Amino acid sequence: MLEPINVSLASLNITTLAPMLIAIVGALTILCIDLIKGGLHKSFYVMVSSLFLLLDLGVVVDFGNIFLKNGPVSGMFDMMLIDGLAIMGQIIIVAGSMLFIPLALTSKRFHEYNYPEYFALFLFMIAGFQFMVSTDNLILIFVGLETASLALYALIALHNRSKSFEAAVKYFTMGALAAGFFAFGSMILYAISGSIEINQIASVLAGDHYANIGYVLVAVSFMLAAFGFKLSMVPFHTWTPDVYEGSSAALAGYMSIVPKIAGFIVAMRLFEFLVHSGVVWLQVILYIVVVVTMTASNIWAMVQTDVKRMLAYSSISHAGFVMAAILIGTTQSNAALFMYWALFSFTNLGAFTMLWVSRQKNLLAGQSSDHPFEKFSGLIKTMPMAAILMGLFMLSLAGIPPFGLFWGKIYIIASAVTGGYTVLALIMALNSALAAYYYLKLIVFMFMKEPVVGYEKYYLINASITLKTIIGIAAIGTIFAVFAVNPLLKVITLFVYNSGY
After folding, report:
1. Which residues of 112-139 are buried (b: 16+ CB within 10 A; e: fewer)?
2. Which of 390, 391, 232 is nearest to 312 (CA)?
3. Is 269 part of any domain?
4. Is residue 8 a part of any domain in this protein?
5. Distance from C-alpha of 9 to C-alpha of 130, rounded to nearest angstrom
6. Which residue in 171, 345, 364, 365 is a FRET match for 188, CA 20 to 30 A apart?
7. What is the pLDDT of residue 366?
8. pLDDT score of 351 more than 80
9. Taking the model in full, what pTM does it have?
10. How far apart are CA 125 and CA 131, in angstroms?
11. Which domain holds residue 397?
12. Domain count, the chain
């Protein structure tokens, strides 16, 4: 007769679930409030969501203090792993979400924000991303991935335009395919290692990966395809411009930041041990994917006629830039990855917010998209402050010193040189110069061309005090990043190094 297994609550360490549970409880609270008292103003749900996110961020920061004193914390039968990567990832996820959620307070009535379900889905999505970054268990990563993805599909469709439905269906189709690839890759890794935990898989494959080289090749191919879809890596990027165009500009900006940092952390956990264990062909494949993603997306961005699609291709290029840090796989490059993405979050959210506040409900005659370059012609004459802010964000995205993203690019390129990837560093520098063309193209339209009649009524049409505040925060973060770079990098390096990456 089998003896019962006694598991104490203390050994489970349920507190490791606290950040995700806060987001989930917040979502359920919003749904319950709507059941009891429907028809409340959207500002109430923005406030409730922001309060739960603030509480979530406080718990994550507290875990950061515990980590610095005692090292990584595990719980729930070692399924949860709160290490430096998990903490840094969750800080970016929750902080980015706190900047996004007030964008619902536009001066115009966009119907998706009148649904309490929108805010509940948003919090469920955050919980999914937090699960992804806070574990090295492939099953829990998959659960978090699908939780976040299913909520995001609905958020896109709630924009309720024909392009939004098309975007949601495309994203759902590509997401389902990526989920299938991830599941098949996980299955093969479990078959050859007997474990679904990345650390244990690494231990098994580090010793005899050549004995199962064929299976490893197939598994990693599936995983690369899965993360290629999620991170918009070429050639799995085709859905990205269409989905960004069909989404609201605010949600497109959010999608370019938060889902990707979750994907980067999982990719870091999964691929770096294979690169370090001497799987040369994986290094070659990653090298090719990184170079092609950076270069091809920059070329496509140069020929775009719509600013939102240009920024979509731009975000693909930035994702390729950051994947280079995972390829390099040193503590310096991993710390540079987090710093790059933190600085990118301010700049890119600011750029997309500028599009959001000038959103059109009805297109003009002959206008094929919401944000053609002509819409911004002569903006310096009609809305000088808007032109200056948008120009600031473009200069930062282009990596022009001393603005925010310049420092992120410098540190990643420096980590490539230090790690022995000199040619890759040169390619990254050339791509940064190439990207400057299409960012400066928008600046030329804003500062050197005459206004186009008909568009002036859409400048800052949705600009509420809240949105102006968010844009101001993004601008301050972009301008004064130079003063925060060194302290930020020291803190990030401390978390990454103590996590063993």
Report:
1. bbeebbbbbbbbbbbbbbbbbbbbbbbe
2. 232
3. yes
4. no
5. 22
6. 171
7. 57
8. yes
9. 0.91
10. 10
11. 14-359+370-498
12. 1
